[in-house]
Design brief:
Helix content is about 45%, strand content about 20%. The chain is an alpha+beta fold and about 1000 residues long. The two termini are about 50 Å apart.
Length: about 1000
């Protein structure tokens, strides 16, 4: 009965949103002089155009906010790299940000001969084997590159995007795709398309050797990233023939050392052609206007014959392949089966099976492994590519458990599936939850664009109808079909990658070449860019919140209700929000986790999870340091039943000593694993720098305290949770009156709230002398952070701080990025930000970061320190940073329950109105002198604490001592246990 109600509710929900026929069918249309195809009942409202030159244009209309998500997708990635030049597609992606003969240059006629010479030198360099000769050639490359940089304008593309108001400038390369991404205001479409059309017309490969060094650093980062290494080994094992496994996206060290600009140009000419590309836009657009403008912008492109990568078929795996990967981080494993081509029946079944095994609530692995705490964590998923997919089960072992034991646990779940030992209702519930997830996802422009982009990459979008209909197809799948398929598919034909703790003997560091800092000409601007920036646009009026109108306030008993109505669909989100957290109750985070393993007097934990899944509802209890949130979401049709179920398990949950023992063991294992995580170590160092030994990072239970956790203490916190002061935050289709009437009946409250325990406070350390905190970790790179406390936060200074961050250390056009990465090639990742807290009772902090090779560390420190001491003035860059900051406010639309959380955040800062109002007004008056003064008063000439995580064997410890007194902190000092 529950399943029937759920499916009925979802069908009504889908129909109410679609306003179309209940099946998905391709149709053709013609509007504004352009023919297009579309699929009926498509929730993304997408139109598929093919222009005369073969360029695909896919548009999805969503006019809820004045923004457009843009993706330029190229159906070529590392699969298409020449075997002699792997990593080429990825490096080309980097170069597409460097400009053309019209922008990114001061004088292309003078620059071109030098670029041609650099290209010739690289061709000679790649064919030369004698080390000394190579050094001399590279020295000449460095010299000529310096000469060429006098005519280059670094990151002029980013300047134009800032002037336009794009809030996302990015790109990525994968095995079958290279995608360029932006998020622009809808009033800037003409200017934006002019830039994109020029960008892909005739890219110039300038600033080549410094960008290549950034790619080297990205390669080094990958060698310090256990997940990336493990995944690459998995691909290589599953695909011994296909380029999925034979060519990595980043490329080999040997090929990175010997790049060919000629091969990169050949790749561009071969694959960056209109019949292999798609312009994808989702957001506030008019179909007829947008396609006409896109056609006009890219009409210069000419289609070419295309030879796509056509791999030889992989031979079936007939034995289990087991491979070990070593790394200093915690152990984990992946068990993977090679899947099928996209949009096949087999892939649909594997996608469904992955969710039957692992959906976070009621899957076989969720119930049999995670709920019973047989592993530290586990999950499954199906990763679909064009030619094949990968069915992957992954997880981490618990204390005392071998990776081999964990592998057997995975296989046990497969065997249960093959034996049909699962409830057939799980199939229907899985489909219902997938539909609900899709409805939620397609409210986002980015999710729409991503889904459409995937369809284009995998099958040029021709099977978009089939993709949309896949959920309906899943509804038709029977238990028998799943069991029969599972018995055919899941054999001894899988790969197991054991990520073991140890030393990786296969690491080969990319050697650091001698690079002389190049010119970036950050204050220069080309005529093309000047025209783009100065072109007028119809301004978008900012839309600020009115907290007296945009949300409503009510009461449920003694609890405040904060309310915004959902008028779009039948989905609700409700949160009991408590102004208390782990700083009040050290045990509260552990009680929240313990709850998921508990049943009540009538149902087991497993039965409760299944019931929530069948209701298409989910709950989570999240404990922060100061705020605790108990959130319930799902179909409003099932609101009352879901709330009653949640209230019952919260107030009637029963202690389970066996579950507690396993839980405590998992906590201790997680504590050990955190000590193996270099990011956690850096976070611990940073907290130590800001507060000293008594710091928030260390504020958790000790090993002995974990061992002494009592069920009674945790249960008491859970049973009495709603007796503490809390507000009810609701976003959903109910009216406020109906909500108040309903919730008061099913959410019982005391006559008065229980007072909270005292709040733990921390004392900020005085960062008035330079120090170095060092932690030893076996890694290729050195992670360096600058830390300085900045005093109590004044919310009235937010406009100046945000503008400073935008100009100084945020994004590709910032001073820090252009100097550290573009000019000096010292890092792939770098930033600097003046951090502001969420409350005016907290202090600000200056945080800077560089991730560089260990032998570049002192150079990187010196480079950042120069910027900390003196902020370079680039008037045009400043003006663009200011324009970007104003545009981001003008185009931002805060909707749904974000309205409530914006109100609560502003209230905490002391604002009674939308804080963006004062920030926007203050921005208009700010000049560079204000930023320079802020830098002088808060950044320059100050003492900093350097937090460094690196290998003691690879770093220059004597050099560190020149920075200041060095304190090597042990893991026990950092973590407190």
């Amino acid at each position: 009965m529950k399943i029937k109600l759920l499916i009925t509710a979802l069908m009504l929900l889908v129909l109410s949103n679609a306003n179309a026929q209940s099946t998905f069918q391709w149709k053709t249309g013609n509007s504004g002089g352009y023919a297009y195809r579309y699929v009926t009942n498509d929730p993304t409202k997408s139109r598929f155009y093919t222009l005369k030159n073969g360029l695909t244009v896919i548009l999805s209309q969503n006019n809820k906010e004045p923004q457009i998500t843009f993706k330029m997708a190229v159906r070529a990635g590392s699969n298409s790299d020449p075997k002699t030049n792997t990593g080429l597609a990825h490096y080309l992606e980097h170069l597409l940000f460097k400009g053309t003969d019209k922008f990114g240059t001061l004088d292309y006629a003078k620059e071109k001969p030098l670029l041609d010479k650099i290209q010739g030198l690289y061709e000679t360099y790649g064919k030369t084997t004698d080390p000394e000769t190579r050094k001399q050639i590279y020295k000449e490359i460095d010299r000529v590159s310096g000469e060429a940089s006098k005519y280059a304008i670094a990151n002029e593309y980013d300047k134009m995007m800032k002037s336009i108001g794009s809030t996302v400038t990015n790109a990525h390369t994968a095995v079958e795709e290279t995608v360029y991404e932006e998020n622009l205001p809808s009033n800037a479409l003409d200017k934006f398309l002019a830039v994109q059309a020029e960008r892909f017309r005739a890219p110039v490969f300038r600033l080549f050797h410094t960008e290549l060094e950034a790619v080297y650093e990205e390669k080094n980062m990958g060698m310090d990233n256990a997940r990336r290494k493990t995944y690459e080994v998995l691909l290589k094992t599953l695909f011994p023939t296909h380029n999925y496994g034979q060519q990595t996206t980043i490329g080999t060290i040997e090929h990175l050392k010997n790049p060919s600009m000629v091969e990169i140009r050949n790749y561009y000419n071969k694959f960056y052609v209109p019949n292999n590309m798609a312009v994808i836009m989702a957001g506030d657009l008019n179909f007829d206007e947008a396609v006409k403008k896109i056609d006009k912008s890219f009409t210069y492109m000419t289609a070419k014959p295309l030879s796509e990568y056509k791999p030889a078929p992989e031979k079936p795996l007939t034995t289990v392949q087991r491979v070990d990967v070593y790394d200093p981080s915690a152990e984990n494993l992946m068990v993977a089966y090679r899947g099928f081509a996209s949009n096949t029946r087999e892939s649909l079944l594997l996608d469904m099976i992955a969710k039957i095994l692992s959906n976070g609530k009621a899957g076989l692995m969720d119930i049999n492994v995670n709920k019973q705490q047989k592993m530290l964590n586990s999950g499954a998923g199906y990763n679909q590519m064009k030619d094949y997919g990968m069915f992957i089960m992954s997880g981490s072992p618990k204390s005392g458990q071998s990776l081999e034991d964990a592998e057997q646990l995975f296989l046990q779940q497969i065997n249960l599936l093959k034996a049909g030992k699962f409830d057939e209702r799980l199939i229907k519930a899985t489909v219902a939850n997938i539909k609900l997830e899709d409805l939620n996802a397609f409210e986002s422009n980015d999710a729409r664009a991503q889904a459409i982009m995937n369809a284009f990459i995998q099958n040029r979008g021709t099977q978009w109808r089939k993709i949309l209909a896949s959920n309906d197809e899943m509804e038709k799948v029977s238990k028998k079909e799943i069991v029969d398929f599972a018995n055919r598919f899941f054999l001894d034909n899988y790969a197991v990658i054991f990520k073991r703790k140890g030393v990786d003997k296969n690491i080969l560091k990319v050697d650091k070449p001698a690079i002389t800092a190049i010119q970036t000409n950050r204050n220069e601007i080309s005529p093309f860019t000047k025209n783009i920036i100065s072109a007028p646009v119809k301004p978008i009026t900012p839309k600020f919140l009115d907290y007296t109108k945009d949300l409503s306030f009510g009461k449920s008993g003694i609890a405040d209700v904060l309310y915004v109505q959902n008028k779009d669909n039948g989905i609700f989100r409700m949160t009991y929000r408590f102004d208390k957290g782990s700083y009040n109750y050290k045990l509260l985070p552990y009680a929240a986790q313990y709850l998921s393993f508990l049943g009540d007097d009538k149902k087991t934990a497993e039965e409760i999870s299944r019931e929530f899944y069948e209701l298409a509802c989910t709950y989570s209890l999240n404990v922060g340091t100061e705020v605790t949130s108990l959130t319930l979401s799902g179909l409003d049709q099932n609101f009352d039943r879901a709330v009653v179920l949640l209230e019952k398990i919260l107030t009637n949950c029963k202690a389970d000593e066996k579950a507690l023992d396993a839980f405590k063991s998992r906590i201790l294992k997680n504590m050990d694993n955190q000590k193996l995580n270099k990011s956690m170590i850096m976070n611990g160092l940073t907290s130590f720098a800001q507060f000293g030994a008594d710091n928030p990072f260390r504020y958790s239970l000790s090993v002995s305290e974990v061992k002494n956790i009592k069920s009674a203490d945790l249960i008491d916190l859970l049973h009495n949770l709603t007796n503490y002061k809390h507000s009810i935050v609701y976003y959903g289709p109910k009216t406020l009156a109906t909500l108040q009437s309903d919730i008061v009946k099913i959410h019982p409250l005391p006559s008065e709230f229980t007072p909270e325990a005292p709040f733990k406070t921390f004392t900020y350390a005085k960062t008035d002398s330079t120090k170095v905190y060092f932690a030893d970790y076996d890694m290729v790179q050195a992670d360096i952070r600058w830390v300085r406390n900045g005093g109590l936060y004044d919310p009235q200074k937010l406009a100046g701080i945000s503008l400073f961050n935008n100009y100084f250390g945020g994004g590709m056009g910032s001073v820090v990025f252009q100097t550290i990465r573009e000019s000096k090639a010292l890092a792939y990742s770098t930033f600097a930000t003046y951090q502001v807290p969420a409350s005016r009772t907290r202090e600000t902090a200056m945080i800077a970061y560089v991730g560089a090779q260990a032998d570049k560390m002192l150079e990187a420190v010196s480079g950042m320190n120069e910027l900390i001491s003196v902020i370079p003035e680039a008037s045009k860059s400043f003006a663009l940073a200011k324009t970007s900051a104003e545009n981001s406010i003008q185009t931002q639309r805060i909707t749904q329950d974000d309205i409530i959380y914006s109100y609560l955040a502003d209230k905490k800062l002391g604002f009674n109105e939308d804080s963006r109002i004062s920030r926007y007004n203050q921005l208009k008056a700010l000049e560079f002198t204000d930023i320079r003064q802020f830098h002088s008063e808060n950044i320059a000439g100050k003492s900093y604490i350097y937090c460094i995580v690196s290998s003691e064997k690879k770093i220059n410890l004597q050099g560190l001592e020149k920075l200041g007194p060095v304190t090597k902190l042990s893991l026990e000092q950092i973590f407190g246990y």
